[in-house]
Structure formats: structure tokens, C-alpha cells
Amino acid sequence: MHFTDLGLSADILRAVSEQGYDTPTPIQAQAIPVVLQGHDLMAAAQTGTGKTAGFTLPVLQLLSNRPAPSRTKPRVLVLTPTRELAAQVEDSVRTYGKYLPLKSAVIYGGVGMAPQTKALRSGVDIIVATPGRLLDHVGEKNVDLSGIEIFILDEADRMLDMGFIHDIRRVTALLPKKKQTLMFSATFSDEIRTLASSYLHNPQQVEVARRNATADMVTQSVYHVDKAKKRDLLVKLIEDNGWHQVLVFTRTKHGANALAEKLDKAGIRSAAIHGNKSQGARTRALADFKSLKLHVLVATDIAARGIDIDLLPHVVNYELPNVPEDYVHRIGRTGRAGSTGQAVSLVCVDEHKLLRDIERLLKREIEVKTVPGFEVDPRIKAEPIENGRRSQAPRDRGNSAPSGQRKPQQQRPPQHAKPVPGTSGQRNPQPQRASQGARQAAKPASGTSGQGRTTERGTGGRSRFSD
């Protein structure tokens, strides 16, 4: 099958061809006809399989076939969990719609509202947005969502993980009842399927990979190593193997900063990307990483969610995630769209339970490798585990010391203005609900950058992560 077989216009096919594509991926081949027929859609696919084009191409086709009733009202809304993913999706809209008379805008926090307000008020057909900042614009009456014809939830599983359900409900309440709704996700949990039943009408279902499957093109391995030697082992692996582009995952923002600094001191050009970084810093770091000016990008889970890099060869789990499904998302950054990749995990004694949970999810054991000089010291014992997490594990919002033991001061991450697109990587297992007064006090005036409001996870009330 070729893109020419899918019923797309000559203008769209021309743009697709200019990107070097002529054959659709499985998710594109299955999803595009369904969307063009006007059906609601639930689509599950591994990351890197081309699902963004799976909805942008048919949406552009549908809009180009319909006269715009009013340029003052957007016709398509795409919600994403992170800033990086929003920027990526809107870039795809502009790339594939370059020969169409359609306008788009990307809306996310961490930057000033004024340019976004100007774009919205000038009239756009397609909005790609993170939930919090979109609701800010709604509150300022900068955008009217009553004309939305197509509503798309991208990375729906991560939307729920990050606590965006209340924001999603607020947004959907502003949309017309009659519309086409598309839900795309790397995986679909039972919770996601329940959510879909609330918003989708007789949806067609497309699933090109089994639930929680890892990319077939990714070679996975584990190195058991003492925690204190992880940094040195990572340096050795990078230098001995000549790795030139490595995405490294840590659990916390503090850990990402510390590791990037240590790698830099070891002569490996590195940068950290997480939710406490300004949007400008995150954009620059990602651009430098893609252009190989940086060899290592150290990221937290949510910060890396929107990272889409062609032919990324290596992903390293410097620390295993607390949630096994996040392992699948992490290693899905490599081995994308038919290319091969390598995923390496550095596992200390404290993380053995997390590794077992991951292998249970994968229904397989991950190959264990060793490097001479980095064997595990058998005298080191695991720290206590509470609710599946180490009691002394550093967290973005502070540490929980064992009962009766004073919390070590040096383990506390630096405190910034109250953290409130993505992305920090620490999923706080027990987020605290801020009072209404505190939330209002934290809200910046219209037109400000809103950077002090960035959080990594919703709190059961208004999510601040994407503001």
C-alpha cells in the first residue's frame, strides 16, 4: 500500500513525498481510512510507529474538503500532555499542510501568553494544546471552542497518569456534542477504555501492537551495579562503545541535573531536560541533542514523552521507573519506525523489585550483561521498600526518611518557586491537593510566562503541569 491509495489530496501527498515517505506505517494504513470516513476512533500503537501522521493527515484532508463556517472559531482541537509533544504535533500539521490554506497554533505554558493570544484572535483552524494553558486562554476569552468539529486526545494514557482527567472534562464540556473524537495512545489500559466510553461514540478500534508490548527492534539488557558506581559505568559504556547519542532517564529532576553535570565533567557533552527548566532551555537542549552538539540528554519521564528523534540508537535507564509501564514508554524512544535500537538498564540492589515488576509485565527476563570491575558488592544490602518504593528514594518534592531517623539534608532537592508540557519525571505517588486560595495565589496575571506554575502531575483539581 502507498499513501496514494488512501484518498489523500494531491497537495497533502506532495508534502508527504517531500518528507521522503511513500508507504504508510501499519497504524497510518489502518487509522487514516477510518478517520476519513468520519468515525470516532480508538487507536493503540507503540511509540515511533507514526501515529501523529495517522491523525494529522486525514484531519487535514477533512478540513480541506469542508468550507470553514467561521475563521474566528477553531475547527480542530488536539490535546497533548506535554509541551514538547504539542510542538511536535503542530510541526507535523504545518509540515503536511504546507500547501493547504489552513492555519494552526500551538498553545502551551512556560512562555508568554501574548503571542498565543494574538494567534488565537487572528483566527486558526487547528489548535494543538496542553490542557492547562488552553483553559487559561478560555478563561481570558481568547478562544471559543464551540465550533470544534474534530477533537483528538493524543497520548491519552499519559494524560490520565499525569492527573489531567479533570482538565479534560472541563475542556470537553466546552465542545459541541456533535463532533468526531479520536483517541491515540501507546497503550490502552482498562481505565483508558473506560474513559473512551465516556467520550467516543461507537468508535472503531485499531491496535497494531499487543498491550504493553515493547518495540521489537529494541535490544534490551541489564547491568547489575552498585549505586555508587553507576555514573562511572555509564561513562565507560559511552566511551568504550562510542555512543554518540544517548537518552538517559532518571527518576527526579534533581538527579537529572546532577548526572548531566557529572557527565559534563567527565568530558561527555550533556544536558538535562525536565519540568523546572524554562521552555527555552528545553527547546535548545533538544535541538542540540538532535544535531549531535550534545551526546547525552538526561531526562525525566514526562520531559521525554514528546521527544521524537529519528534513529535514536541508545536509551539508558540510569534508574528504573517506579511504574513498569513507564519502562515501555522509555525504551520506545529508540527502535522507532523500523530502525534498531539498544536499551540498557543500570540496576542496583534497591531496584531488584522494580526489575522483577518490569519483567513480569514483559513476560520475559531481560538479558544480564557484566563489565569487569563493576560487579556488585555482595555486602551492600537493599534499602527498605515501602509500597514498592525505596523509603529514602529522592523525590522531586522532598524525601521521606525512615521512622525515627532524621532526614539527611543533602538529599533534599533544591527548592525553587513552588513547582506547580510537559515535564518532570517524578510521579509523586501521593500528590497533595492545593487549597483553592493557594491555587489562585499561584496563578500569574495574563501575559506572564507562567513558569512558576509548571508541575509534573495533576493534583485532582486543576492540573498545573501544562500551564
UniProtKB/TrEMBL annotation:
Predominant subcellular localization, coarse grouping: cytoplasm
Coiled-coil annotated residue ranges, if any: none
Ranges of residues in domain Helicase C-terminal: 229-379
Enzyme Commission number(s): 3.6.4.13
Extent of Basic and acidic residues compositional bias: 379-398
Domain DEAD-box RNA helicase Q: 1-29
Entry keywords, A to Z: ATP-binding, Cytoplasm, Helicase, Hydrolase, Nucleotide-binding, Ribosome biogenesis
Biased composition (Polar residues): 423-438
Listed Pfam families: DEAD, Helicase_C
Motif (Q motif) on chain: 1-29
GO molecular function, one term: helicase activity
Low complexity bias: start-end ranges: 405-414
Class of the enzyme per the UniProt entry, highest EC level: hydrolase
Domain called Helicase ATP-binding: residue spans: 32-206
UniProt region (Disordered), positions on chain: 379-467
Catalytic activity as recorded in UniProt: ATP + H2O = ADP + phosphate + H(+)
PROSITE patterns per record: DEAD_ATP_HELICASE (PS00039), HELICASE_ATP_BIND_1 (PS51192), HELICASE_CTER (PS51194), Q_MOTIF (PS51195)
Family the entry assigns: Belongs to the DEAD box helicase family. RhlE subfamily.
Function: DEAD-box RNA helicase involved in ribosome assembly. Has RNA-dependent ATPase activity and unwinds double-stranded RNA.
HAMAP family attached to this UniProt entry: DEAD_helicase_RhlE (MF_00968)
Protein known as: ATP-dependent RNA helicase RhlE
Organism of this sequence: Keguizhuia sedimenti
Gene name as annotated: rhlE
